[in-house]
Amino acid sequence: MLQIEIQRLDKALPLPQYKTPLSSGMDLYSRISTTIKKGETTLVPTGIAIKLPEGYEAQIRPRSGLALKHGLTLLNTPGTIDADYRGEISLIVINFGKEDFIIEKGMRLAQMVINRYETASFIEVDSLPDSQRGSGGFGSTGI
Known about the structure:
Elements: E1 5-8, E2 26-29, E3 34-36, E4 41-45, E5 48-51, E6 56-62, H1 64-70, E7 72-74, E8 79-81, E9 90-95, E10 101-103, E11 108-116
Antiparallel strand pairs: 1-5, 2-11, 3-10, 4-9, 6-8, 6-11, 7-9
């Protein structure tokens, strides 16, 4: 199991945790209480900072129940936490719902998934080889 260093910036909040044995995402909690008016966007701190190993990132994703039931989701989704970032993880929350939404301190607002990644370099060429799809873009493979 991968071990990640974490700094709890608010001792009243639990550490991120998986809710079931096969969950891929750990719940992240709100460090503040606030009301997000319908149509409004706000930044919500989570009370944690992490040190990821080189070659890893954390993806921050919305919770499906909040999106379905209340229209609450995250912008810049998935958000990326790079291995060299050491600041507090915060959530860009938007309320697409029909009513104002009250966020309470300690509420589960998002989930964090840890992923391994590869870095790449580019090799410039004059042309690319053909493929079955070619340059067909948006909708070119059907519905």
